[in-house]
Amino acid sequence: MRKGFANAAGLVLGFALDRVFGDPRRWHPVAGFGSAALALERRTYADRRSAGVAHEIVAVGGVVGLGLMLRRGGVAATALATWTVLGGRSLAGTGREMADRLESGDLDGARRLLPSLCGRDPEVLDADGLARAALESIAENTSDATVAPLLWGAVAGAPGLLGYRAINTLDAMIGYRNDRYQRFGWAAARTDDVANLVPARVTGLLTAALAPVAGGRAADSLAAWRRDAAGHPSPNAGVVEATMAGALGVGLGGVTRYRHGTESRPRLGDGPAPTVPDLRRAVRMSEAVQVAAVLVAAGYALAAGRR
Hints:
By secondary structure, the protein is mainly alpha-helical. It has 12 helices and 2 strands, in the order αααααααααααββα. It has one domain. Strands 1-2 form a two-stranded antiparallel sheet.
């Protein structure tokens, strides 16, 4: 019981720290992990899946080991780990800033801001394309940046929080289907898929339940999930983007240009293409889902502690 309470309290306190302070502006631990992973890659890289598996084990294993040591610190350690891995306030703030720039006609400023949300090529996007890219990123990152780490923290405390963030960061670094990472990044991409299977579906359920926050209906959100999510190349992004599209009454997907190539994404939702007001509604939905997620995670941690 005591361990469950400490875990729940640490998650709630860490979430509050993120809401108040956001990401650390300097010396961010996740950025430090990324630099360490890049240095490790210089030693482990080979154009083989086995090399990527070894890279994943060493990088993630080291972070989980750090989390095991931090676990002895109780509430304070869990709160610090939670604050370190969450990115909910920054996600919402960037979404609102993108909407501000698009509304003012500052397309150059919006293009400069887009890389902080996703890896798409901003130079080929007009205002509508930028709004769609930002909205899809907010939907996916609501799960990746908040719901998933909170749920892993509820299950495994500080090791779960830090381990998940390491997995997700490695996927963002090397989980690509290009010439360099097709084989070496395979383990990072597949591990991230597995780590997000449950969190993405919890995010989808919360999005549907909270659809009225953005003026939508739960039934429309769930219908988009059932009809459209499976067509997405990601088993997890399809769920969160489809439920967001249904909740907002917009249509997502289509031609998606990255710096490494172009993909054709299936249509998610049956409404019109999103506009700037829809982007603001998506930010509002994201913040509501984040609050619901910390309550779910804390409740699970307390229940697990009783068992």
